[in-house]
Amino acid sequence: MSRIVFLNGSFLPIEEAKVPFMDRGFLFGDGVYEGIAILDGHLVDNDAHLERLERSLREVRIPNPYTRAEWTRLEEEIARRNGMTEGFIYFQVTRGVAERDFMFPENTAPTVAMFTQAKAIVNAPAAEKGIAVITVPDQRWSRRDIKSINLLAQVLAKQAAKEAGAQEAWMVQDGFVTEGGSSSGFIVTKEGRIVVRPLSNAILPGITRKSLLALSQDAGIELEERLFTVEEAYDAAEAFMTSASTFVLPIVSIDGRSIGDGKPGPITKKLREIYIRMASSPRMAAE
Ligand code: PMP
C-alpha cells in the first residue's frame, strides 16, 4: 500500500505531494507543528494536542485553517488510509507560499501537511533497556513554549547524542536542565518524588508531561515542580523522559554516569504502565 499523506485539502500518495519552492516553512521555518500518538486505533490526548496547536498558531499569528472537529477528522482519516493502529501522526501549518520577504504576506493561505509513521510504541525495546542521554547547552530561542518547526538546535543536539552513543540530549541553561531535544525531562529523588521543570517560555508544554503529572497525582506519587541541575540528575534515583511518540522512557545513564543502579527504575516502570493503560483506553483517550 502506498503511503498516503495529506496536503492542503487532499489525501494523496507521498510521491505526488509537492510543496512549492517559495513556501515560508522551507525558506524561514515560518510555521508550527504537532505530533500525536495513535494506539489501538485511537488518538491519545487529542484535545490537548489540538489546544496546543491552536495556541502555537495564535502566538505566531498564522490563521488556524480548521476547527478542532475538522482536525480530528483529518487525523482519523489519515490513520485509516494508512491502515495505522499504532504510531505517530505529524502535522504542520506554515504561513504559506509567497515571494520571499520577511513580513507576513497578505491573503496567503497557510500550507497544511500531515503524515503518519507506523511505530511500535508500547513494545519499544528502549522501554525495556532504558536509554542513554548526554547534556548539551540549550541554544534555542526564548519562545520554546511555541511548537515551532525551527528545530536546528534540536537537530544538532540529537546528532551530538547519537555520535556519543546516546539516544537523547538534555539541554542545559545556567546549569539547569530545560528539557530533552524532543521530550520532557524528569528525575526521581531518593525519597521517591518526581521532579520536573515548571512550565514557562523556556520549555515546550509537553502533553505527555501534563497527562503523566495528573496520573501520578492519582497514583499518590509526590511531585516537585522546580528546576533541577545536571549534578542533581546524575545523583537521582531514577530519570525518565516523556513524549507523544515514546510515552514514558527510562533513562539509565546521563553523560556516561549510571543513574541509580543503571536499570529502569520502579517508579518509571509504574508510570509507564499507568500511562499506557490511560492511552489504550478509548474513553480517556477520547476525552
Ligand atoms: N519538549 C520538546 C522540545 C519536544 O519537541 C517534545 C515533543 N515534541 C516534547 C517536549 C514532548 O512533548 P509531547 O509530550 O507533547 O510530545
UniProtKB/TrEMBL annotation:
Requisite cofactors: pyridoxal 5'-phosphate
Catalytic activity as recorded in UniProt: L-valine + 2-oxoglutarate = 3-methyl-2-oxobutanoate + L-glutamate; L-isoleucine + 2-oxoglutarate = (S)-3-methyl-2-oxopentanoate + L-glutamate; L-leucine + 2-oxoglutarate = 4-methyl-2-oxopentanoate + L-glutamate
Keywords per UniProt: Amino-acid biosynthesis, Branched-chain amino acid biosynthesis, Pyridoxal phosphate
Keyword Amino-acid biosynthesis: yes
InterPro entries, A to Z: Aminotrans_IV (IPR001544), Aminotransferase-like (IPR036038), BCAT-like_C (IPR043132), BCAT-like_N (IPR043131), Class-IV_PLP-Dep_Aminotrnsfr (IPR050571)
One GO MF term attached to the UniProt entry: branched-chain-amino-acid transaminase activity
EC number: 2.6.1.42
Record's GO cellular component terms: cytosol
Biochemical pathway: Amino-acid biosynthesis; L-leucine biosynthesis; L-leucine from 3-methyl-2-oxobutanoate: step 4/4; Amino-acid biosynthesis; L-isoleucine biosynthesis; L-isoleucine from 2-oxobutanoate: step 4/4; Amino-acid biosynthesis; L-valine biosynthesis; L-valine from pyruvate: step 4/4
One example of a Gene Ontology biological process annotation: amino acid biosynthetic process
One Pfam family hit: Aminotran_4
Stated family: Belongs to the class-IV pyridoxal-phosphate-dependent aminotransferase family.
Function summary: Acts on leucine, isoleucine and valine.
This protein's name: Probable branched-chain-amino-acid aminotransferase
